[in-house]
Structures are given as C-alpha cells and as structure tokens.
Amino acid sequence: MLASGALAHGGITLFSSPAPRFAETEERGIAIMGKIRVAINGYGNLGRGVEKALAHAEDMELLAVFTRRAPETVVTAGAPVVALRELPSWVGKIDVVINCGGSATDLETQTPQVAEHFNVVDSFDNHAHIPAHFAAVDATAKEHGTLALISSGWDPGFFSLQRAYGLAFLPAGETYTFWGPGLSQGHSDAVRRISGVKHAVQYTLPVEENMQRILAGEKLELSTAEKHRRQVFVVLEEGADADAVREAIVTMPDYFAPYETEVNFISEAEFARDHTGMPHGGHVIRIGETTPGTTQVVHGELKLDSNPEFTGSVLAASARAVARMAAAGATGAITLFDVPPAQLVAADPAELRQHWL
Amino acid sequence: MLASGALAHGGITLFSSPAPRFAETEERGIAIMGKIRVAINGYGNLGRGVEKALAHAEDMELLAVFTRRAPETVVTAGAPVVALRELPSWVGKIDVVINCGGSATDLETQTPQVAEHFNVVDSFDNHAHIPAHFAAVDATAKEHGTLALISSGWDPGFFSLQRAYGLAFLPAGETYTFWGPGLSQGHSDAVRRISGVKHAVQYTLPVEENMQRILAGEKLELSTAEKHRRQVFVVLEEGADADAVREAIVTMPDYFAPYETEVNFISEAEFARDHTGMPHGGHVIRIGETTPGTTQVVHGELKLDSNPEFTGSVLAASARAVARMAAAGATGAITLFDVPPAQLVAADPAELRQHWL
C-alpha cells in the first residue's frame, strides 16, 4: 500500500515519478512498510474511543498516549503514557498523531502546533470556525511538509460525506440534517448550572413527524426548532423547587426557549441506571428532483450507542488514510472530502472491489 | 480547479511538480479551463438520464450523443447525434465519454475500446465479472494514458460507498443490503416470457420486519429470500388462464420459487396508469460493535422515483471527477472508492468546507 515513491491504489498510479515530498516524508519516519504508528494526544472520552478503535485495526499500532496531566495519574489499556511536552522528541517514531482535545479550547491551538512536526488528525467541530482553522493548519502543514486531516468524526465527518454525496448526485435539491436521539453535552452542562440541579442530561430528538414528511419527499422549510425537540432528565438537590427548575430550563434563551422541551425529574438511582451512556445519532436527508416531479431521496442515518467510540473509530480510519496519503507525498490540510474512501479501509483495493463494490 | 500541472484541491497539493501524464493529457484535449466536454455513448433510458443530469451541471456540456442506430432516427433534447463508428475522429474534442450501454452485452466490450482514445465512465453492474472487467479496462487505459471509472451508479456506486464507509468506520460488524421497493427489469422480462402474459412488471420489496430487526441492532443471518419478497403485476392476453400464469410465475426457479411472491392481475388501463415508471431504491445497513455490547448502526437509504435518472446523475458527477483527476495526471481504471468526494461536486473546495462540512 505504501510503496516507495508511488501509491498504486485502485489501479490508478497517483505518482509515476517519485513524489516530491517523499524524501522529506521518509525523514519524518513514515512507516513505508509495517504497521502505521499512531499516538493519541489527550485521554478523555474521545481518546479512549480512539484507543478502542485501534484495537480493531491490525494494520495500526498505538505507540503512546500523550497527556497534559501527570502521566502517572493516567491509566490506559496498555499504551505508555507520556507528558505532552515530550511530544517533539518523538519525531521520526510516529506516523500520525490523533488530537483528542476539545474544539472549544484545545484544537485551534494544538492542531497547528502538532502539524509542525507530525501528520495529524482532529475532530474540530465548531462549524463557524472551520474555514479559519483549516487555513491556519494548512499554512503550518504546508510549511513543515506534514499532512493534517481536520474536522473528522460523525458530524462534521460521516454526516459531511453524506451531505457532499447528496449534493454531488442530486445537485438540484434540499439537504436536511436532524440530530438525535442523542445526548448533548453543551445542553446538559447548561442545565447543571441551574441552582437546585444535582445531575442532568439533555437529549436532542428529531421532530419525527416533520422528518417523516421530508423522507416522504416533501420539501419543507424548517427552523432548527421545528426539526428538534429537547428532553431533559434532572436529579434535584435535596429540597430544591421542581417548578422553579423546570421554569429556568424551558425559558433559557437559545438553549431551550425556542424548542419544545420536556423536563423529567428522576431519582439518583434511575439516573445512574439509565442515563450515563453517551448515545447519539441522526439523519441527513437530501431531496432532489432530477426532472420536475421526479423526486429522489438520499437518506443517511446513524444510531450510536456511544458517540465517543464511534467518533474515535472514524478518527482511527482517518489516521490510516493520512499515513498512506502522506507517504505518497500529500501535504497541507485536508478533510474527509479529499480522501478516497479506499484509503480509509484496511482491506486492499482488489478485495474491496471484489466484495464491497 | 484544473490548474496547469497541479490539482490544488482541499488545500492539498497532489502534484508539486508537473504531473508526468499531463502533456499527453493536454494532447488528448482535456479542458484545462472552461466546461468539461462530455459525450454520451448509447441513448436508451440511461443515456437519457445522463442527458437530464447534465442539464443541472453548469460546469459541464454535452457535446454529442453517439449511437449504433441510424443517427437520424434518434431525437435528443438538443445534442447532435453521431454514428458510434465516428467516435475515434472526436479525439481531442471530448474530455469524458459516458458509456450508457448494458452490462450484459455492451460494456465489457465497449469500455476497453473507448478507453483506447478517451477518458470514460461506465455503470458495469455484473458483480461477479467486476474484477475481470476492471483488469481489462485498467490495462487498456494505462497503455493509452486514459482514465476510466467503472461500475458507477447506485448499486454498484452509491451503495458501494455506503458499504465501504461502513467497513472503514465499523471494522467489526456485519453489512446488509436490501433492495427495493423497486422495479426489477430482469424479473419483469422473465414474467413477460410466460405464455398468456401481455404486460408485466415485477417489484422487489425488502422484507420490512427483518429489516427493522436489523436496524434495531440485531445481527441476523439472512438469505436473499429472507431479505426480499416479490410483487408482480400482470396484464393477461385475451383468454389466458390466470391460475396457470400464477403457477408458472411462483414456481420459476431462482427468479421466484425461493421468494414470497405476490401475483396481481390488472387491466391494461391500470398498468398504463400505475406501472410505467422505473422506481427503485433500498437500504445498506452496517451493524458494528466498537466494544462488546456497544452497538453502532450506520444506515443508508435511497428512494428513487426514477432509477435511470438517478443512475445518470451519479454517472454525470463521476464524469466530472474523471475529467479533473485525468487533468491531474491519473490514468488506469478506478471506481468511486478511489475518488475524493470533493472531486464529484461542482462547488469549489472552500465553499464545500464552509457550507457542507
């Protein structure tokens, strides 16, 4: 797969002469043969999700987990834990670093920094800031001859792919994204900040009736609030006023006020039993007309028991593609839009064509 | 997009030095600037579907329709009709030929022939013969410096992409493909050959109950007959024996005998009113576990009013990608597995990232 100087893939020779960045790529220690050497940067829910995904990838190995915490306080499933400040001394030993920090505080700083020395993957999901993040990472990666895949995961990521194919194959149409049923961390945090709330989770749910109308081919104009409703489960502090808490939730601007919101008060035992997972999912629907009155519907759906484990799995596959494309000489910033699907899969191209086409 | 010597795309420079095939590519007349020049080879339902799709593509133009019939007997929506034997004299004037013949008789011969002179796209869908067809096309295309994308459409094609991403993102799991509700041309033809049948259509339908169990996360082992049932609408010849026709249908080996088959007899007027469209669709479902007991479901669905118009739309987008990738120096055979999604879309990469990621 990572043949010297040429990435022969799917029968197409991408490079007939040595790729210009190939020598420098070798200096960086790209694994031309053998397993793809991966490091995880940040060991929260997402970092653990990536670690679990790598256990399914026989062509990849997890070399180390880097952390800002004291390494001796971090327990992995087996990989050595290393202080993040030591990362630069690993140049030449790692093919791809998977940045598992948060979009709010970490990735905008960390991904360009890591791209100075390593190929890198991140899950940057602040849609409004993606163009700026892409530009910053692209400049650094091009200057240093590395390859950086940003904004991978499920949305942005898998859902972005669904949107792009919908646009490609049905250029005249409308695209709808519905999120849920799924846990929203941001909305859960907002509820937890209300006085009297001990524990809380918020689930985003699609408005099923409107989604079914769209799936049946209707072109509706819907606001976000017409596409989603909100379901909250709260454990109250001893003596807290349930009505006041409910009122504080349903009237909260932006977060809840525009939405149909259902508030449920439950016991601490029920909370522990039913609400500690991190499910998520949703739907991307493209309704197009190829000729007037001829309606074509493309629909993608995810139903995830664990958001961080699926996101981690997409990041692991993305790291595989980055290692292969970097070895073939690619540099700069990319997204999943720029990755041939075959590059994400462990199976070789002939097997993929024979059994999966 | 088709910048000279380098395909700068998604921030990644695929070629930092002139691509080796680029000069020869220019000799073949690849449109470096301006619209992508497309020809349709074969003007049946699929050819007309491609023609309709190209009407939505402002970056592409349909230069000619090639046919084996007498050109004066073929009426297009506007493109000139040319005898197929004249195709070689169009070298240098066409960027991509879209082969719209049938898999049973035409494409195995035509696609290698066309690839001697032109970049080409086909919808070859005989799964068992794909490896041999790929090898034959790849050898010719590499020898002549052309690029050929085979087996595009909805299945193989869009559904193949769904299967590949499912495999990439959930490597431990099972993949299920359900076809329908949709018109099967082969099964309709088989019914029409029965004595006493004047008109007939056959719809393939997924066995809804089994599909819902899988969507709920169950891993079932299902035969094709457990995944699909068959629904037939027949207009009888005057005086034909309905019971004999029904018996001939439901006992037909391979085609109907293994399946739950429903046979309906209708009038010629009902047939004309309700059964002359070519709807199709189906579902690709990947059920995976990222850790034991943590189930993740990836589900893709198509609901198509017109199979040939959607297939034509996928072929048109594929032709766009082929023109761009050929201009960047790619040669040989490829499938949609080898195409970065951004190459299929008319929008430029920055717009795609900003609005569709």
TrEMBL record, chains A, B:
Listed EC numbers: 1.4.1.16
Pfam families to which the protein is assigned, alphabetical: DAPDH_C
Residues involved in substrate binding: W179, T204, R230, H280, N307
Reactions catalysed: meso-2,6-diaminopimelate + NADP(+) + H2O = (S)-2-amino-6-oxoheptanedioate + NH4(+) + NADPH + H(+)
Residues binding NADP(+), per UniProt: 43-46, 67-69, 100-103, 123-125, 152-156
Taxonomic superkingdom: Bacteria
One Gene Ontology term of the molecular function aspect: nucleotide binding
InterPro entries linked: Diaminopimelate_DH_Ddh, Meso-DAP_DH_C, NAD(P)-bd_dom_sf
Keyword tags: Amino-acid biosynthesis, Diaminopimelate biosynthesis, Lysine biosynthesis, NADP, Nucleotide-binding, Oxidoreductase
Annotated GO biological process: diaminopimelate biosynthetic process; lysine biosynthetic process via diaminopimelate
Pathway stated in the Swiss-Prot or TrEMBL entry: Amino-acid biosynthesis; L-lysine biosynthesis via DAP pathway; DL-2,6-diaminopimelate from (S)-tetrahydrodipicolinate: step 1/1
Residue ranges constituting the Meso-diaminopimelate D-dehydrogenase C-terminal domain according to the UniProt record: 153-306
Signal peptide: none
Subunit structure: Homodimer.
Family: Belongs to the diaminopimelate dehydrogenase family.
Name recorded for this polypeptide: Meso-diaminopimelate D-dehydrogenase
